[in-house]
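User: Can you predict the 3D structure of Paraquat-inducible protein A? Sequence below.
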Amino acid sequence: MKRPPTATELNLCLCHSCGLACDMTDEPHQCPRCDAPLHRRKTNSLARTWAYMFAALAFYVPANLLPVMNTTMLGNGSDSTIMSGVLEFWEHGAWDIALIIFIASIAVPGVKFVALSLLLITVQRDSLWARKERSKLFRFVELIGYWSMLDVLVVALVAALVKFQALGDIEPRPGILFFGLVVVFTMLSAMSFDPRLIWDHSAHQEAVDEEVMDEPIQS
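Assistant: Sure. Here are the predicted structure tokens for Paraquat-inducible protein A:
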């Protein structure tokens, strides 16, 4: 059974900016709709994805160990890390804010590290395992990346509430900077990964299988 032609065989390329399927025959290779440069594949995709992810992992440790804010109420000041802030909000009954901070600051980066590592390792091993599911996993990583700054927004909201009460003060601490760097580098890592690499081996294998099936059987 013949498979449908691929975009490469039709000399087409998808624009990363607007999603238009563009003909790569003419030069220069720019999208006719948004003038963005066209690339058949992301350059050094695996190397850049690994590099950004290791950088995010390096910043993830101080982001969780260093205090992210200092709160002063009625003359008493204390530093709070991400986890201590989650426990403090939970103990004071603000379980919704505690849950948001925990998911955005602890769970989401951890899920992204595990998911990207799985995608990178399986691609480098030319694995044919669960290609469709791995493609969906990459889309999920892209989706949750946009919500990774929730923790920073919560800190800003808490700072505004504390200052509004005029009974205390709140200041950011170095941990929030490291957490922002974690968010940036994990997003860059996801953006650098080329999901088409998941299907490269299978497309090549299908082409080989078709050539074998088309060969005449010699008696």
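Residues 115 and 137 are 7 Å apart (CA to CA). Confidence is low (pLDDT under 50) at residues 203-219.
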